[in-house]
Amino acid sequence: MTSLASTIVEEIKPIGHASIPAKVGLALVLAALADWLFYGQRIGLSLTLFAIVLAGVSTLFNHAALDLRRALIGSAVLVAGLVPVIEELNTLSFLILIASLAIALLLVTNPETTGLADRARALRNLVLLGPFRFFLDAPQAFNASALTRGIAHWLLPAALSTVFVALFAAANPVIEQWVFQLNPKLIQQYVSVPRVLFWGLMLALVWPFIHVRWRRKTNVTTAVADGPVPPQLPPLVSVEFLGPSTILRSLILFNLLFAAQSILDGIYLWGHVALPDNLTYAGYAHRGAYPLIVTALLAAAFVLVAMRPGGPAENSKVIRPLVYLWVGQNVLLVASSILRLDLYVDIYMLTYWRIAAFIWMGLVALGLILIVTRIALNRSNQWLVGVNLIALAIVLYGCSLVNFDAFIADYNVSHSREASGKGLQIDINYLLTLGPQALPAIDKAILLRSGNPESCLVSRRDRLVEQQRRDLAWRSWGFRSWRLQRRLDAQAKDQSGNPPAG
């Protein structure tokens, strides 16, 4: 026999379904923001900025309870509360801002409270009891199930973010300085009892806006059964190591990290803004092209795995734009790498390895664009591999037709200090290692050098000339060698036809 009893109970219910660990983490971020904005600083516009961020975070975690009409009314209340603070921060404007934040939160997240008395009671509980709830709710972040889910969701994003930060530090001396400032000995200089108390106060104040809970009356139906009720099985933690939640967290972190690197490159590399103390522009520009390419390759690998065809994240309307944004930042990263290498070559001359790096960077950028194309067109990874192989084949075929020996030699001579007045002196020994195709550039370099050429240099050049003549034999004949010989013959004819005056 089963009897049903309906009772009215008053309980506290949270709004939204975000996990406690994530909320605690974001509360710490807000406390850090408050530390940067307020601690030891004069407060003014910073309070307005913090209130806007707090309202945005509250909306993010409580979007399930949002209604367009109530959201518009709450936004209007918040804007009205911000106006006096923007005009001037004083005791009255501060209290108005606090009241507007509380009222906006009530209107947006508690539609069941309609009467004036109920609303006043809810606001009283928010102001008097809300700040103390953080110290009761935060320990829930450390229960086994939530902790396991939190670790599984954040392990991959945190690990890859650490790798990206290390690569950025290797490529960017500004980020390297930031990482150095994370030294525990340096952090201890900023930790004090007043600061710890300030953080505790800020956590208590922001928590009611992140983890919203209102007292409300609900009907609870209690079922009483005659027979024994079997015990509930403990919940199983089912976590996808690379599921949508992990991918979303990863993309948010990665976009923020890459945005920092892109902004720094935009300021210092592209914008030529003065660098911080103890840093030179040459050191910033000529460092880290290769670590940035490794970063882009890791990013491409992650996107391929995360956005695999048929995967849970492929059709997500939230994840897709983040992927496009991140790939776009990676393309910008490759462009910065190419600019860094170009600036490096402009000073330290051209070599085969540096040409290969230019080509490789171009292929990486093309590969990133093709990844976005695959995702947008819903193509398979097999299609992506095929298109990349075609692009690689075209590039290799084109490279086979380019006379890199002559190109490198001509570039190095024309950009040398002897020819242009800047850069390094001609490395004649390197030119001689390029073979007969470098002979025209070597002859030009000899003319640019003051005084008579050394006998050893002349003998080594003559050996290249002899090698070139042997290459014209029918067994070793090549069209490139034939063109070179015609050029050398024309050059010798011009010199014999124009004897020196006197």
Quickly count the domains. 3
Mind describing the biggest β-sheet?
2 strands, antiparallel
Radius of gyration: 34 Å
Runs with pLDDT <50, length 5+? 1-18, 219-227, 232-239
Q: Based on helices, strands and strand pairing, what is the structural class? A: mainly alpha
Q: Could you tell me the strand content as a percent range?
A: under 5%
Pfam families: DUF4153 (PF13687)
Transmembrane segments: 20-37, 43-61, 92-109, 154-175, 187-210, 251-270, 290-310, 322-339, 351-371, 383-404
Keywords: Membrane, Transmembrane, Transmembrane helix
Protein name: DUF4173 domain-containing protein
Report on the structure:
This protein has 502 residues and is mainly alpha-helical. It has three domains: 12-142 and 187-215, no CATH class; 244-402, no CATH class; 428-492, no CATH class. Helix content is 69%, strand content 5%. The protein is built from 22 helices and two strands. Strands 1-2 form a two-stranded antiparallel ribbon. Residues 1-18, 219-227 and 232-239 have low confidence and may be disordered.
In short:
This protein has 502 residues and is mainly alpha-helical. The chain has helices at residues 20-38, 45-61, 68-87, 91-109, 116-128, 134-137, 144-171, 173-180, 184-188, 193-210, 244-270, 281-285, 289-306, 319-348, 352-377, 381-400, 404-414, 417-420, 428-433, 439-448, 455-471, 479-497, and strands at 3-14, 213-224.
Topology of helices and strands:
Layout: E1 3-14, H1 20-38, H2 45-61, H3 68-87, H4 91-109, H5 116-128, H6 134-137, H7 144-171, H8 173-180, H9 184-188, H10 193-210, E2 213-224, H11 244-270, H12 281-285, H13 289-306, H14 319-348, H15 352-377, H16 381-400, H17 404-414, H18 417-420, H19 428-433, H20 439-448, H21 455-471, H22 479-497
Antiparallel strand pairs: 1-2
Helix pairs in contact: 1-2, 1-10, 3-4, 7-8, 7-11, 7-13, 11-14, 13-14, 13-15, 14-15, 15-16, 17-20
